[in-house]
Write a structure and sequence with these properties.
CATH class: Alpha Beta
Helix content: 25-40%
Shape: globular
CATH topology: Creatine Amidinohydrolase
Number of strands: 15
Number of domains: 1
Oligomer: single chain
Radius of gyration: 17 Å
Structural class: alpha+beta
């Protein structure tokens, strides 16, 4: 676990930029989700993402990052995260996770949502609701004076109460001048561990929740993560800043 002195404390000016970045990204995601239609390919979803990023005069954070080929990660059904856009069409009843990051004034912002296409199974409606609620349970613990793993524990405890499982291999992270900064933020583990949280820390919190096992595997493309048992997965993420009072969601 990273120590507190490795976690960058952002200045008020940096937080102002990150807040502006978050608002731009929130508007991109809102417009993107409104444009989704049954029958679109995941490559078309990525093309819309790129167009919206350019319209807002910011840069895509993911395209070219460690060789990733697209602006958005588009993961369908049993795909957990890092789905590479392709000619695969989304169908009625699918769930589609879209993870997008941008660069604004040399600072990064990162967010993700999972959307049901048309009428979806009630079990999937519940999965989406539980995953988004778990994100907000985690965010609520991102308070000055708490421990880092208070976030982790709140997410895991709620998800497992609902008889779902939390992905272990992929975690949240600090964010700022880099897409991935210290610390790593697991979505599981006991409370009261890791660094003490301080005002000015900025995190991307992102639970990935599976209907079945928490275990995952990576497809032959080297990127797309799928559930080990083929059951469906959801992913929600916000970038947040710790303040004197309650945490502020930057990508709301």
């Amino acid at each position: 676990m990273n120590t507190t002195n490795q976690i960058k404390i952002k200045s008020p000016q940096e937080i102002k930029i990150l807040r502006e970045a978050g608002q731009i990204l929130a508007s991109v995601i809102k417009e993107l989700t409104c444009s989704l239609k049954i029958g679109m390919s995941t490559a078309q979803i990525d093309a819309v993402t790129e167009k919206l990023i350019k319209k807002n005069k910011v840069k895509p954070a993911f395209k070219g990052y460690r060789g990733y080929p697209a602006c958005a990660c588009v993961s369908v059904n049993d795909e957990v995260v890092h789905g590479i856009p392709s000619d695969r069409q989304v169908k009625e009843g699918d769930i589609v996770s879209i993870d997008v990051g941008i660069i604004y004034k040399d600072y990064y912002s990162d967010t993700a949502v999972t959307i049901g296409m048309g009428s979806i199974d009630p079990d999937l409606e519940k999965l989406l609701k539980v995953t988004e609620t778990a994100l907000h349970r985690g965010i609520a613990q991102a308070k000055a004076g708490n421990h880092l793993t208070d976030i982790s524990h709140a997410i895991q405890e709620y998800v497992e109460e609902q008889n779902y499982s939390v992905v272990r291999e992929f975690v949240g992270h600090g964010i700022g001048r880099k897409l991935h900064e210290a610390p790593e933020i697991p979505n599981f583990g006991p409370a009261k561990g890791g660094p003490i949280l301080q005002e000015g820390m900025v995190f991307a919190i992102e639970p990935m929740v599976n209907i079945g096992t928490w275990k995952t595997k990576i497809e032959n493309d080297g990127w797309t993560v799928v559930t080990a048992d083929g059951k469906y997965s959801a992913h929600f993420e916000h970038s947040i800043v710790i303040t004197k009072k309650k945490p502020e969601i930057l990508t709301k």
